[in-house]
Amino acid sequence: MQFQLMANNQAVWFDTTSLGPSARELGPPGNCPLSPEMNNKPDCYAHAIAYDIETGQSRTIYMDGEPWCSSGHLWPNGDLVATGGTRGGYKSVRMLSLNDPKANFVEKKNVLADNRWHYISFLVEK
To answer: What PANTHER family would the database entry show (predicted)?
Structure first.
C-alpha cells in the first residue's frame, strides 16, 4: 500500500488489485478495468482513492494494473509517480496529476527496462 499527501491537500491511497474487491465501488459505472486475477473479468472496485483533508470528501481513482510492492515519489511539479509493482505491474510507470482535481492514474505498461518490485525511489541531486 502507498499513501501520499499531495500539495493540494489530497491524501492519495492505493494498494494491490489482487486481493479481491475493496469496500468501495469504482465510479462512474462501467469504468472497470479487466483484471488478470479475475480471469480478465471487469474489476469494478476501487483500489485507489483521494481524500480531501479540508472538506472530508473522497473520490475513487481509476487505476489499471497491479501496483502492489511498487515505489512512489513526487516530481518537482507535484505530480505523483509510482513505478513497478507485481504481476502485470512489474515494468509499469503510473502518474497522477496534481493540477487536475479529478485525475486518474495514467499507466504506461512495460516501459521499464527491468522488473521493479520492492525497491526504493529517491531523488539524486546534482
So the answer is: GALACTOSE OXIDASE (PTHR32208:SF106), SECRETED PROTEIN-RELATED (PTHR32208)
| DSSP-assigned states of every residue in 25-49 | B-SSTT---EEGGGTTEE--B-SEE
Residue 117 lies in a domain: no
Domains of the chain: total:
1
Instruction: Give the up-direction half-sphere exposure of residue 17: CA atoms within 13 A in the CB hemisphere.
Output: 32
Whether residue 94 lies inside any domain: the answer is yes
Structure confidence by residue, pLDDT tens digits, 63-92: 888 777 787 889 999 999 988 777 777 678
Kindly report the pTM of this predicted structure. 0.81
* Alpha carbons 100 and 22: distance in angstroms, whole number: 25
Nearest-angstrom CA–CA distance, 84 and 92: 5
Q: If we measure between CA atoms, which residue out of 124, 82, 123 comes closest to residue 106?
A: 82
* 88 close to 107: Cβ distance less than 8 angstroms: no
| CA–CA distance, 30 with 97 (Å, rounded to integer) | 23
Residue 86 grid cell: 507485481
